[in-house]
Specification:
Oligomer: single chain
CATH topology: Amino acid/polyamine transporter I
Membrane topology: Multi-pass membrane protein
GO molecular function: transmembrane transporter activity
CATH superfamily: Amino acid/polyamine transporter I
Pfam family, one: AA_permease_2
Protein name: APC family permease
Number of helices: 18
CATH architecture: Up-down Bundle
Shape: globular
Strand content: under 5%
Helix content: over 70%
Largest sheet: none
Order of helices and strands: HHHHHHHHHHHHHHHHHH
Number of strands: 0
Structural class: mainly alpha
Organism: Cellulomonas shaoxiangyii
Radius of gyration: 23 Å
Amino acid sequence: MTRTDSGAEAPTRLNRSVTGPLLFLFILGDVLGAGVYALVGELSAEAGGMVWLPLLVALVMALLTAASYAELVTKYPQAGGSAVYAQRAFGRPMISFLVGFSMLAAGVTSAAGLSLAFGGDYLGVFLDVPAIPTAIVFLALVAALNARGIKESMRANLVMTAIEVGGLLLVVVLGAIVLGRGDGDPARLLELPAGTSAAAATLGGALIAFYSFVGFETSANVAEEVRDVRRVYPRALFGALVTAGVVYLLVGIVAPAVVAPEDLSASSGPLLEVVRAAGGVPLQLFSVVALIAVANGALLTMIMSSRLAYGMAEEGLLPAPLARVLPNRRTPVVAIVVTTAVAMVLTATGSLVDLASTVVLLLLLVFLSTNLAVLVLRKDHVDHPHFRAWTPVPVLAIGTCLGLLTQQEARHWLLAGALLAAGVVLHLLTRRRSQESAAERRASTPDAGTDARS
């Protein structure tokens, strides 16, 4: 934890109001998110009834990279996350910018996808409204809550996380009831798709399952707003990941045991199939839970994106106006407006199918950078205690990131390359404008250099 000589926490322009329980729920809500409500179907297509195995492998992979975040967040507790760590470790603004831009691209695109999900079939159960306009209005409401304050956003997250966890636990309970009355087939838990080996199903499924665990990295961007971050952050991070992992594993066990894997993979709402098989619970009720999960994921993702933009502006990697803070609320208002506007554009114009896969690729590149940064920054000693990961852990995490990257398809590499190329152009333009401004300031004071030399 960053401290002054007197032992007090270092000052920050942001409001340090996030407690340990709020941080735990922030991470848990972001990890669980909306993806799990469609995850089981995708995993069933890849791993058959052995959904639980790639989920378990992905949990271990996520915990490895989480250890690197725990070390870096408690060592350098400031907004900006992975981009700040890259800047400290590699000392090259271009690398730092690309890492931060990858996070921004992934986060804003995820929010756009979640907004479309909110305006889609789940809401269609209740209202017949066009998806894109609804999604844009939804993003505006999320931005308003984000701008109101981190504490208010965390409180909203607390309620929504409780509801979405309750929905997943409801699936587990209903699945247990189905199995308890003799229906379903637990033997399916060891079945694989025809012509698929256990290794291929596990590795391919782990890539999908890993997406369900991403979200924990966003917590690094609220480090300046956490009280007693050195003590609180590792506990909240590992506790939330393990809790999410247990819930995922339970869902991954009951779903294919209750509903045939081929039926799960054919459904766009696979968990609804479990609810339908159990009976007794209105499907509309579960649709409400799914909508809340989507809204919570979008809120937390936009909190991350705005704080990341703020932190990068503080580091001089993005234009300075993005670091402006709303006076009374002490929230990064310009960053919130800009990231929301970009998400709205993606919502209206983006092809979200391929963008979703590209999000995973971009985040793996970010994780690779962060795990490398831990090892590089071991030589940088700070004057306060912090969490320290066992050295083989980030090394193993690097290996897992490289392994998952090899599973990406060529078109996703091409799309990610195009996004990063756009980031390079933006960075060069920003740097050029900064240099031009500096030159103008020097030109406006021509005698300054002469006076200094004399």
